[in-house]
Amino acid sequence: MTPSFAALPDLIIEPLVRAALLEDLGQSGDVTTRAVIPAETTYEARLNARDTGVVSGMQIARIAFHLVDPTLKIETLVQDGQPCTPGQTLMTIAGSAASILSGERVALNFAGRLSGIASLTASFVAETAGTKTRITCTRKTTPGLRMVEKQAVLHGGGYNHRYGLSDAILIKDNHIAAAGGVAAVLHAARANVSHMMKVEIEVDSLAQLQEVLETGGADVVLLDNMDTPTLTKAVAMAKGHLVTEASGNMRRDRIAEVSATGVDYISSGALTHSAQTLDLGLDF
Asked: Quinolinate phosphoribosyl transferase N-terminal domain spans which residues (predicted)?
């Protein structure tokens, strides 16, 4: 099943884009453009793809150009979440040439970065074909940009894991060690958790998984850094009791064999921390 997504409200995204524009424009604005482009010059620019991939960041590019100049006329030809090919025009921007040039780099930085994440996610998702496994992201995102990077994962056909430390309980190996073991940490979590919040616990062995099953209290189990035979056994043990998530060293070339184990989710930090920027350009 392909996940559904809706555009985030502009109001939420605008502060990120505004901060990036302020960083780029500094105290004096675009001094190069002011010096060499007459204020009355108008143009229609094209934001073009120079590589094959999945588009993300068109909403942000539009916001960037409109923050610089609300009079610019912008037409988005390829929507976020859609594929693109080299030479394809994704967006046209018409109006003041100076305004277009001043917003160009911020728009491209966001769109290239996010399209890279969406494209890498789509390549992971393609490896799960014929299985029920879903690809999901992690918290290994660029500081300050988690919201839009996670949206890019959705654009690539993936799913979102928790957004931060406050929206789900994820008990990892250090929590288990500090709390005194699997049983102790699960009892403590259930004693303090809201009925609206899920509890996930990380295990790295079948023995730990067995203790989780005997103790109860978890909704999801994170099967960490397991080889494929061990992961297959773990999925069978947890079936009907826990949602399963495989994590740790989840490279694209391993996704097909891991999804064949029947695991519910594969989480990979690579989707956001190792995505290569998709080559996009603004052509006059």
From this structure: 30-115
190 is catalytic: no
Known catalytic residue at 202 = yes
- Of 80, 224, 245, 264, the catalytic one is 224
Of the residues 172, 239, 251, 257, only one is catalytic, namely: 172
User: Per residue in 141-159, pLDDT tens?
Assistant: 999 999 999 999 999 999 9
Q: Is 140 annotated as belonging to a binding site?
A: yes
Note if the pTM is more than 0.70.
yes
Q: Active site residue: 105, 190, 198, 233, which one?
A: 105
The β-bridge partners of 211 are: none
Burial 31-69 (b: 16+ CB within 10 A, else e): eebeeebeeeeeeebbbbbbbebbbbbbbbbbbbbbbbe
Is residue 204 a known part of a binding site?
Answer: no
Same domain membership, residue 137 and residue 270: yes
Per the structure, the complete domain to which residue 66 belongs is given by 10-119+276-283
Domain contains 2: no
Is 270 among the annotated ligand-binding positions?
Answer: yes
Dist CA 153 CA 1 (whole Å): 15
Residue 54 bridge partners (DSSP): 83
105 is catalytic: yes
